[in-house]
Amino acid sequence: MKRLFFVLMTAALLLPACSAFRRTPEEEARIAALVDQRLEARQYRIYVDYMIPRRGPSKSITDPYCITVDGEKLNSYLPYFGVAYSLPYGGGKALNFEDTIDEYIDYGWQKGRRSIAFSTNNDEDIIVYTLTIYDGGSADINVHCRNRDDIKFRGSLDPDSYPKD
User: Fold this and answer.
1) How many distinct structural domains can be found in the chain?
2) Structural domain contains residue 16
3) How many CB atoms neighbour CB 135 within 10 A?
4) What's the CATH number where 116 sits?
């Protein structure tokens, strides 16, 4: 009986807290407009909090890993776990570098999500990033490298964080 009482009390306390995290329709529309504005301007930062390597278990990420696109520049600060086939001595840059974007393709909005693909050559590898960004700001990043196993990330585009006005 005490256990049932504890479960009911916990549920009663958690239900109002869950509704506090819901966004109003006005807030959702504001975020969708800001996400679209950042993507159109090619000025956005995507913070990642989850990684899915090709081999091995998926992991939550606690450090502030992110990619930043600023016009034709890419700043990639992402962790890497996987098999590397050809690397310079010492391990190389992996996915931590700043370079220019060679090719940028924006496929536009389809059913509440926008697909973007771009490639870069960081002097060690040719890397292709494929982004799927949802109108609420959540994002998936697929990273395809020529000399390493592919890796996927999940995170979010915070339209209020970048660029800093």
Assistant:
1) 1
2) no
3) 17
4) 2.40.128.410
